[in-house]
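Before any further analysis, backbone shapes were mapped to integers, which produced the following:

***
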Amino acid sequence: MFLVAGMLISFIIHAIIGSLQLTGAQSNPVAMRIAAEVLMTCATLHIIVTVILSIKTLYAIKRSGAHYFKNNLLFWVRRISGLTIILPLIMHLQIFGAQHEGAYRLSVFTTGRLISQILLVVSIAFHVLLNVKPALLGFGVKGHKKFATDFVFILSVLLLVFAVSFYVYYLRWMSN
């Protein structure tokens, strides 16, 4: 649960600072880098823990001989939704994380790259939406239904801002 909290907090910080940069506003590159590094560390650890738990689940299924796939469909949807983030994330790192002699170098932001980044936002939104309830239960939040609705609303607004920021950045590239 601490990894999830760390990912969410560092993601929001990273995305807000990134949105400011993409739209041409001033932002703090040091804070951006720290948030990105914390986010990638938490995400990597989250992936490792999830893979380990998924392997243990598969082992238990095989050992028991009872798959109950239909009953556990949401479990597998949550796992698969996490996997859908990986390719757009790799593209994000390729587009915005390239360094040359210690300085970040941006490559041309084409329509395909815009689509990949919108897919990143959508896949994150879908994954978080699927996992909000178990995360809140894991944190022991009382009245998690009301809190989940508020959280999803705020996150949806932020994700919309992030997607619009990618589009603004795309328009700025196309106008040059």
Summary: The helical segments are 2-22, 29-64, 73-96, 111-139, 144-175. The CA atoms of residues 1 and 138 lie 7 Å apart.
